[in-house]
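Page 47, continued from p. 46.
Same chain as before, 365 aa.
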Amino acid sequence: MSKLVEVETLQLWLAEGKPVTVLDVRPREQYDEWRIPGSVHVDAYGKLKAGDEEVLRALDLPTNRPVVTVCVSGNTSQVAADQLERRGLDVSSLTGGMKAWSFAWNKAVVSLPNGVEVVQVRRAGKGCLSYLVSSQQEALVIDPSLDQQVYLDLARDLGVEIVGILDTHLHADHLSRANHLATTLGVPRYLPAQDRVNCPHTPLGNGDVITFGKSKLEVLLTPGHTWESSTFAIDGALFTGDTLFTDSVGRPDLEAAPEEARKRALVLYDSLQRLTSLPGETLVLPAHADEPPDFSGTPWAARISDVRAKIELLQLERDAFADYLTDHAQPAPANHTLIVQLNEACELPQAVGDLEAGANRCAIH
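Result:
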């Protein structure tokens, strides 16, 4: 049987730029939705499951670098690895497959005026973006979606103290780690004001300000994706959550009947107009990426002026915008109803791999 490689090892190889071929053998529609950056795809899942020994025979792969095979859970990729190993390749199967890769991450750094440093923490397998924002020796964490140790280690390495944890809204595609992290550190957990969350938190309203280090983070209420969705502004940058992405907008239909979804879409239009009327050099830092963030260290961000020009939906009139959003709903994130319920209850199960597996699906283009 061929070798296995752990997620942490592949993550390190990609971060270091080590030559490696990642071969994804899942069906095309799964690969198109969520994948490892830079991976090669062959739609071989069905034939591998059926025991076809010829399906990878004609595949031309580099022989001077290791190959890592990938599937959903790590079983069919083992079959693929065994076949390739018999051809003499240095090949391993990714332990746990894409379900395990969902927790792989990388980072990018953004420097803002007045000494504010932003570490963008990217779940490469799911596209979730969270942030460690520091000023002087104090920091805030925004939209944490990874194990708390990731943020604790980043803060330690930067020599800063985390003094508050924030969510831009109640997420539907992943479990918030905010309550867990805030409890561990004994610091405030901030949430936009709503009546859905059943654990202690500090509610935030439009115009509220959080002071940390020598900086101030201002709350802008930007409802639409959810009623409580908010954007956090600091020194020419916006943490827009799932309201505005770099080339798409948030969907208004999750956990909403059609009539409610249209109401949200109309309000989302107003929120987007508010954000896109800000100075063109303002930087958009969203809570999700539309593609798996790669390991180049390039921030997933865009200026408001570029966002305005790129997103055609922003050029529509209000009613036409709402019509489009309600008529073009995409499949909901996997397990979104249960994830929302757990986020409302501030519960974080020990095993979340199956629950969070899959693409985020929070945007409409």
